[in-house]
Structures are given as C-alpha cells and as structure tokens.
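Mods, move this if it's the wrong board.
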Amino acid sequence: MNPLPFVLSLPHCSTTIAAEIVERLAVGDEEVARSADLCTGEIYVDLPVVAVVPAVCSRLVVDLNRAIDDQRPMGVIPQTDYGGNRVWKPGREPSAALRAQLIERYYQPFHTRLRDVLATTPCAGLIDCHSLEGIGPVNAPDRSQRRKDVTLGNLGDPNGSTSARRTTSCPGEILAFLAEAFRAQGFSVSLNSPYSGGFITATYGPLLRQQGKWAIQVELNEDLYKQPDAYACDALKLSSIKMAMGEVLCRFADDLRCTDQKGGTP
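Not the wrong board. Structure tokens:
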C-alpha cells in the first residue's frame, strides 16, 4: 500500500531531557510526564503516512509549538508548566546563552526538518498531533467541562468556517471530511473548541494553502486510552486507538482522492 499523503508533526510527544539540563529543573518526573501529549508518539509514529516529524525533547525545555521569540511564562523556553509549577530552580534559570543553545539544538532542527519535509515530500497536508485532558483544567478556556473524544482545529469557528480574525489553515469542507472519518469510527468530535490551532497550524497553514494544501490540528482526548488511576497508557486501549487512527486516515485519504477525481480539492 502506498503511504497515506499526510505529514504528521508531534511537537509535544517527548519526555526526554538532556542530562545537563535535569539538575536545573524544579519539576520532577511526574510533571515532565504530564507536560507531554500522552502517548502521541506511540499512536502516530508507525502510521503509514509519508512522513512523521517528532520532538526529541520535552516541551518544558523547548516548546516547539511556540514562536521562536515567544517570551511568555509558557513560551518557547517555558518558565512554568500547565499546572502552574515553576520549571527551573531559583537561580538556575537558562541564561541568554543557554536559551540560544537550546533553540539551536532543538527548535531549529525540528522546524527545519518540518519545512524540508513539507517542501520536498508529495502530500495533501499537515496534521499537527496533540492530546488533551478529558476535563478542562483550571487554566483552560473550557474549565471543568467534559471534552469530546477528538478536537479538530483549523483556526476557524465551531463550524470550521473562516474566522473573523484570521484565515483558516484548512478549508471547512476538508475539515468536515476528517470529522466524518472520526465519527465513522465512533468518536465524538468538536471543531475549534476548546482549541482551534497553535503556532504550527497558524504558521504552516497559510503557506500550505497557497500551494493548494492545508494544516489541521488534532487533539485526542487522553481518557480514550489513559489508565483510570495513573497518568499512563492502557495497552489494550492504546492498541485500539492506533488501529482506529489508521482507519480514520485511510478514509480521510479516500475522501480527498474522490474529491480530486470529481473536480479538484475544495
């Protein structure tokens, strides 16, 4: 079977922290684990797509889904995690030189690789792969609300249509194809809520649309495959999710192919 025509980016899949950084951190293993998008590497890396671009370091060291000059507390070099915990020990925060080193070591290679893959690999579009907690945490826009199984983002409104404040990263018709592919596998789906897309979707989407391609952010609800009493994957549920994701992407590719044959991508 030919690879499915999608490039997958996994900017938050890693829990790896270089040895020389570990002793600077104020957070422990549990916080590092919770900062990652749970099991997105295991779910996506082996899918039969044209390319997968994964992170090789924890987002607590360098957040690849931020602008390179984002200096906010949860910016490109985070100062706090999503639980409000301080990332770095007092007095051990990264200096300007170390920040530049981290950017050069982790941020630049990831985005260079992603740009190169998108420029040289025939594909229909980019899927930016994430996970989210089953109930909105205190600092989320949907605080205390139970979330759908899947959240799809194209920077648009809850119908997937053009946003008043920016161009969507993907035509609404294509977003609807992916939503229906998920629903066919029994998943509930939300469009652009609670999240409509991050830096990767917003940066690469407009460039890809100029080429007749697109970018979509996918957030999987961790309750689909998480152990009920631990922040870890349930092996059987994870296997089921991986199989379902393969079916979703196969149907999505078929729908896109049929649309092209009928007269072009929307």
